[in-house]
Amino acid sequence: MSEVSNAVETQNGNSKEILAIPSKFDTIQKDASYQNISTDVLVDSNVFDVTKHYIHSLADINGKYEQFFVYGDGAKTRTVSLVHFGENLCGHLGIVHGGCISTVCDELFGWTMVTGHVGFTAYLNVNFRKPLPTQTSALIFTELDRREGRKVFMKSRVEDDEGNLFTEATAFEKAFGEDGVINVEKHFIHSLRNIGGKYETFVVYGHNDKQSTTSFVYFGNSLCGHEGIVHGGCISTVCDELFGWTMIMDKAGFTANLNVNFRKPLKASTLAVITTELEKIEGRKVYLKSKVQDTEGNTYTEATSLFILPRPSQ
Ligand SMILES: CCCCCCCCCCCCCC(=O)SCCNC(=O)CCNC(=O)[C@H](O)C(C)(C)COP(=O)(O)OP(=O)(O)OC[C@H]1O[C@@H](n2cnc3c(N)ncnc32)[C@H](O)[C@@H]1OP(=O)(O)O
What we know:
This protein is α+β, with helices and mostly antiparallel strands and 314 residues long. It has helices at residues 23-30, 54-60, 98-114, 188-194, 232-248; strands spanning 8-12, 15-19, 34-36, 67-72, 78-84, 118-128, 137-148, 151-159, 165-177, 201-207, 212-218, 254-262, 271-282, 285-293, 299-308. Strand 7 (137-148) and strand 8 (151-159) form a beta hairpin.
């Protein structure tokens, strides 16, 4: 990502658009207590390979799921999927990015719903029990848990062929009807197969206190779930990623839990201002929180996360 001086560039197809620069962005650019860490973050090359790292790979090579097969049961309450994430979707070297796992869980909750109703994810909670190696063929089971009015509660688990558990997720979606507004040509998971899913702008400012970041992310039309609305999984991925950046300014860790509340649909055309903040550290446990807002200060998503630092011997 090139240094942004007086405008935010977004790539739409082959043409570049310039968005008016928000005053908050301007302020942070000029604030000496922040530095642009978009291309200059301290990277331990034993842990991260930026040529393979998810967000960066999206900038240079397209991130893709290598296999994605979904089976829905006749009762329309479950799905079983085979997902091979492959090398492009890692965060830590050789380990699938927590955001990509969250995206697929969110997606498959949507598919579980789509067999009956269509809805928006309101809440997503993901527990990463074990690192998922990028070359694993993951089996993902989703299940309708219960329904309370328009709220549809679901759960999922990610396993390998031997039944080892890697991730567990729960969510609820708000159903809004029988008919969907999904355009597969623009939909994230499908677009990853046909056109490259890309963040069009991704600029990160790290605060000198090494405990907070402010980022400007323009998701654009390739990262939608519902047409024109950014996929909840992509928002979760960016939150997870930026929690990682907040951490990496000081120390690297693994996401153990990611908890995302989607307060309002985020339009693909909105420039998102994402702030992360380290809340507290208790031994190896690091608690972080983030907000996704627009330049007017309207809140779209709030997320919290628990990162676990390596054991002292590791
Ligand atoms: C320019 C270039 C830029 C490059 C930028 C790079 C930035 C990259 C950014 C990338 C960012 C991407 C980031 C990613 O996506 S990382 C990828 C996704 N995450 C994973 O793969 C992690 C999988 N899980 C594990 O490996 C282990 O479970 C971990 C390591 C997390 C803990 O296993 P470990 O054996 O080490 O520890 P422990 O089990 O003794 O637990 C320790 C404590 O923690 C508590 N606990 C544990 N889990 C949970 C839970 N779910 N909720 C609540 N609490 C939990 C537990 O009760 C205990 O508490 P206490 O009893 O001590 O009180």
